[in-house]
Amino acid sequence: MMHNKKIIKYEVKKILSNSRYKHALKVAEYAKALSKIYGLESNKAYIAGLIHDIAKEFSKTKIVALSKKNKEFKKYPSIKSLHGIASAHYAKNKLDINDTEILDAVSNHVISKKNVSMLSMILFIADKLESSKITNVEKYKILAENNIRKCFLLLYKNFKR
Question: DSSP of 104-161, one letter per residue?
């Protein structure tokens, strides 16, 4: 796995628009903070946050091509929802990130499964709370810091397939 955050940041910044890159940095920082609360490796959470949307601005054709390599491709309801698995595939093949926990978290950040790793829950929550996709963000942040599973399940209900 490529551990050098500077190299990953450089690669992500080259690919993403400025606003999407700023979002990725916010998600990375929040995921890192949550990971520290829950005793996870904060570097993993930060990297997952950085790369989670790396394929989001790719063409629909490229997103589909990258996503088809995932066996769960057909379960996704729209091309827009595929960018998570496309991002994971891109990160593995172009950024040499082979950590399955990071790649699973990236794959699951758009539409999650109910039973996922702590890192997947953290990335899902960080993305939703840093995206202004919900109201009462501060309430959810307090809940995330005190009961990550409960926060995840509440958000999961709002963002499942």
Answer: HHHHHSSS--SS--HHHHHHHHHHHHHTT-SS-HHHHHHHHHH-HHHHHHHHHHHH--
Cβ–Cβ under 8 Å, residues 51 and 106: yes
Q: pLDDT of 96-145, one tens digit each?
A: 999 999 999 999 887 777 788 999 999 999 999 987 667 789 999 999 99
For residue 139, the one-letter residue type is: K
CB-based contact 2:95 (threshold 8 Å)? yes
Instruction: Give dist(CA 100, CA 77) in Å, integer.
Output: 24
- Using an 8 Å Cβ cutoff, are 129 and 137 in contact? yes
DSSP 8-state symbol, 56: T
For the residues 72-85, what does the mean pLDDT come to?
74
Contact 42, 35 (CB under 8 A): yes
- pTM for this predicted structure: 0.91
Amino acid in the structure at residue 153 = L
Asked whether the beta carbons of 85 and 72 are under 8 A apart, the reply is yes
Q: Which two tokens stand for residue 23?
A: 């979002």
Token pair belonging to 13:
């910044």
